[in-house]
Amino acid sequence: MSPTLAEVVAAIEAAYPPALAESWDAVGLVCGDPAEPVDRVLVCVDPVESTVDEAIELGAQLVLAHHPLLLRGVHGVPADDVKGRLVHKLIRNGAGLLCAHTNADSADPGVSDALAEALGLRVTGPLDAKPADPLDALSVIVPAGHTDKLLDALFAAGAAAIGDYREAAFLHEGTAQFRPVAAADPAVGSHGELHRGPETRIETVLPRHRRRAVLAALHAAHPYETPAYDLHELAEEPSSRGIGRIGELAEAEPFGAFVQRVALALPETAWGVRAAGEPERPVRTVAVCGGAGDSLLRAATKAGVDAYVTADLRHHPAGEHLAGPGTPMLVDVAHWASEWPWCAQAADVIRRAFPGTVDVHVSTRRTDPWTLAASATGRTPA
Length: 382
Hints:
It is a single chain. This protein is α/β, with parallel strands linked by helices. 29% of the residues lie in helices and 29% in strands. It contains twelve helices and 15 strands. The protein has a six-stranded mixed sheet with strand order 5-10-12-13-14-11. A five-stranded mixed sheet has the order 1-4-3-2-15, with helices on both faces. A four-stranded antiparallel sheet has the order 7-8-6-9. Helix 1 (5-15) crosses helix 12 (341-353), helix 5 crosses helix 12 (341-353) and helix 6 (147-156) packs antiparallel against helix 7. The relative contact order is 0.16. The model has no long low-confidence stretch (mean pLDDT 95).
């Protein structure tokens, strides 16, 4: 039985969480009925006329594209507008459009992991790491006999998950004391008398976005009207997610050979591959960034890599980078070509989620806008 569009979208967004997208980005479902079944998907880099036509020819009910169709706000999608025409064509043919852009860039694995894999690199970490999901640390004291009930409530509210482990907590047995006064309504002990009894201190962590739910569960499940607890924010730590990747080759090779490796690994474009560096200089460690990556030139230098592979390098940033000491050599490829390997990765996400029920196609249509290149071979530059 074919999954619904909503189920396919959920599987893709589990791999490429929308929360990872940059604030300026526009990701998610552009059009399509979430309740409709999906049995065929086309994955591509660009949602353009060519790939939309390809999806229709295939009979696909969903186009999964890397680049957004409507990155900037619009107030309408009339059929006589370039982008509006695509939306109308998709809807008329029963196809939805889902865009996974910078959320797919930052995911682990994501766009740059696919590029690194295509180049034969072993990824060692992100180039520009995003912080890990923020955590709070919680410590609460509960009287003997109520520990399990409180733990169950905290777990159900989302606390105590660490990596691939659940219900993670530290329990310390001890003696607590208090003296109920004024209008107190003590669960144990008597007014005016010092009470001492066995209690357990529970220590655990929780995602910061679950703080309100966890504290509500604590108060609801705790036998005391005023539970004793501490809550503090843990220091920010880097994660394995983020833009770009750092990797290494199995063996060092001359830069000239590495540039040829890049050209052979990626789909051919009119622009081809251009590079800046000494042909014989050895390359072992490499930074990569699928898509436009000149904003990460400093990060590549700080990483101490031998070479940096990305797209859309501009004249002045590249020149200023190369003039600095100890900078990595540069390999500049076509934007579309640098991100195309991600299509196979995204296709596998869908295949694993819906084995044998969804037919997934990777577009091979070249949507790089440049179609011609010319050179005056042998001419001496002025």
